[in-house]
């Protein structure tokens, strides 16, 4: 992967240099031609000037051709680097003894197609692969996609109605998201030069949020005074497209929470995690070329740090064994208040059933320990 990155950076740098030199050459030739065209010359002098312009153009063309060859050479090296290592990367990172059930893969693909709004393709794929989805799964996904698409077109009534309907399931009744939607609607009216309608809309909807969003409401109202020069005003950020994108993401997150599904499709998450883990897996493949250490276990022989973006629940590491807890080896709460993994606790009793906590003088039995869930 590092080789790909270096080659790509080289291609990008050479392409940028070629573009800059080509633009400079065109401007220089245009300036020279315009200068010569503004001065009166005799026919013989005009011919000499055109010949001089031709020589300059040919020299610039030669320089550009040389730079273009360098770009093509870098592209060729990048292509060869990818072709040379891609197959090796995939083979080295895979464990042939591990097989994922095909219906799991098909189900993940179907869900991803639905989440992307490709419902016709998803339904056809589900029919051909034998995957069954109930209407109570597909219909809410379709509703989510339609509402997010409506937000993109500044049609906010469906989103507002959805929040009002599901307010009991949302944090603080969905007040934050509901205010953002009203804010978007108000700003869109200003964009359309409907200032009177925007003022009426603000008077109707903003008072309910005054206690929590007073400063934001004040900025929204003051922006009306600068509507003719909003780009140079202190309120230009309110009209950025980022506000709409952030609202779409926030609405998707709230909707997925109500539906009890992940914010991102499982296929996207697994693929992204695989890309992050690929360098570590390749290194592990070089250390364990026969992959014998990978067989017969649900865990990899190396630790892969995926980052917080892929952490969806708390992780407990036993302070005795230094291993993470699992379903088969859950964290256990001792009467003294310390927490160890079940496997570590079962190894502590020696002669009798009682054992001493590794971190305090307290004594207890295994039966007194209780499994805990984070």
TrEMBL record:
Domain annotation CTLH: ranges: 140-197
Keyword flag Zinc-finger: yes
InterPro entries to which the protein is assigned, alphabetical: CRA_dom, CTLH/CRA, CTLH_C, Fyv10_fam, LisH, Rmd5_dRing, ZF_RING_GID, Znf-RING_euk
Keyword check for Zinc: yes
GO molecular function per UniProt: ubiquitin protein ligase activity; zinc ion binding
Gene3D superfamilies noted in UniProt: Zinc/RING finger domain, C3HC4 (zinc finger)
Cell compartments where the protein resides: Cytoplasm
CC per GO annotation: cytoplasm; GID complex; nucleus
Domain of life: Eukaryota
Record's protein name: Uncharacterized protein
Annotated organism of origin: Galdieria sulphuraria
């Amino acid at each position: 992967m590092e080789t790909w990155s270096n080659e790509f950076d080289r291609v990008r740098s050479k392409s940028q240099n070629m573009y800059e030199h080509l633009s400079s050459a065109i401007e220089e030739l245009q300036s020279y031609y315009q200068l010569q065209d503004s001065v009166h010359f005799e026919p013989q002098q005009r011919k000499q000037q055109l010949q001089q312009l031709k020589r300059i153009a040919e020299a610039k063309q030669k320089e550009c051709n040389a730079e273009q060859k360098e770009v093509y050479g870098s592209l060729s090296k990048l292509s060869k680097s990818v072709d040379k290592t891609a197959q090796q990367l995939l083979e080295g990172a895979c464990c042939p003894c591990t097989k994922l059930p095909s219906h799991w893969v098909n189900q993940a693909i179907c869900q991803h197609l639905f989440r992307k709004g490709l419902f016709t393709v998803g339904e056809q794929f589900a029919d051909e692969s034998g995957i069954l989805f109930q209407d109570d799964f597909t219909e809410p996904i379709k509703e989510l996609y339609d509402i997010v698409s409506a937000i993109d077109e500044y049609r906010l009534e469906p989103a507002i109605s959805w929040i009002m309907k599901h307010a009991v399931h949302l944090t603080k009744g969905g007040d934050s998201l509901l205010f953002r939607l009203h804010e978007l609607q108000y700003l869109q009216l200003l964009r359309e030069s409907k200032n009177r309608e925007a003022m009426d809309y603000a008077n109707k909807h903003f008072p309910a949020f005054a206690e929590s969003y007073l400063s934001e409401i004040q900025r929204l109202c003051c922006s009306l005074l600068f509507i003719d020069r909003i780009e140079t005003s202190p309120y230009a950020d309110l009209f950025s497209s980022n506000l709409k994108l952030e609202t779409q993401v926030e609405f998707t997150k709230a909707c997925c929470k109500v539906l009890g599904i992940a914010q991102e499709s499982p296929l996207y998450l697994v693929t992204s995690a695989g890309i992050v883990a690929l360098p570590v897996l390749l290194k592990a493949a070089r250390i364990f070329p026969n992959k014998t250490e990978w067989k017969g276990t649900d865990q990899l022989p190396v630790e892969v740090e995926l980052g917080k973006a892929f952490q969806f629940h708390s992780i407990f590491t036993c302070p005795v064994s230094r291993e993470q807890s699992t379903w088969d080896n859950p964290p256990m709460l001792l009467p003294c208040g310390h927490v160890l993994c079940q496997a570590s606790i079962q190894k502590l009793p020696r002669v009798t059933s009682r054992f001493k906590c590794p971190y305090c003088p307290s004594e207890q039995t295994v039966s007194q320990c209780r499994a805990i869930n984070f």
